[in-house]
Design a protein that fits this description.
Helix content: 55-70%
CATH architecture: Orthogonal Bundle
Number of domains: 1
Structural class: mainly alpha
Strand content: under 5%
Number of helices: 8
CATH superfamily: NusB-like
Radius of gyration: 15 Å
Order of helices and strands: HHHHHHHH
Shape: globular
Mean pLDDT: 92
CATH topology: N-utilizing Substance Protein B Homolog, Chain A
Length: 149
């Protein structure tokens, strides 16, 4: 990720961190590997650009809550199972749900908007609308979901 956008403190922007997390989750899914194992192999490797703290937080958070996240996605992605979703969309949605429910420093509209933006960059023409719809449905009940976590 050389040339990645930098935040005001010199680290990668949160958008860049989210994009990197999507890439790691996607690669792990394609390889059939655990994302945190793949991440651990990348941290400190001289062959890849440095991985920022927020990327690590996202990958570890999604992995920790994966079963619950996938359950919510299956319930709210009308007519789709997570296994049938394009893998990039699944990775984007997983990060979006994690930020909606477990990252209290990220406002719900920001979590959704960032996920839609990454879907525009990395996935199909239909993906932004799909991601917006699924996360919008989950976002509309996020307060109730957070109350029982």
């Amino acid at each position: 990720m050389s040339g990645a956008a930098r935040g005001k403190y010199g680290g990668p922007t949160r958008r860049a961190a989210r994009t990197r997390a999507v890439e790691i989750l996607y690669e792990a899914a394609q390889r059939g590997d655990d994302a945190t194992t793949l991440l651990a192999g990348r941290i400190g490797s001289v062959d890849v650009d440095a991985i920022g703290d927020y990327t690590i937080t996202l990958v570890e958070g999604v992995t920790e809550h994966l079963a619950h996240i996938d359950e919510l996605l299956a319930e709210h992605a009308q007519g789709w199972t997570v296994d049938r979703m394009p893998p990039v969309d699944a990775a984007v949605l997983r990060i979006g749900v994690y930020e909606l429910l477990w990252r209290h420093d990220v406002p719900d509209p920001v979590a959704i908007d960032e996920a839609v933006g990454i879907a525009k960059e990395l996935s199909t023409d239909d993906s932004p609308r799909f991601v917006n719809g699924v996360l919008g449905r989950i976002g509309s009940i996020a307060d109730r979901l957070r109350a029982v976590l």
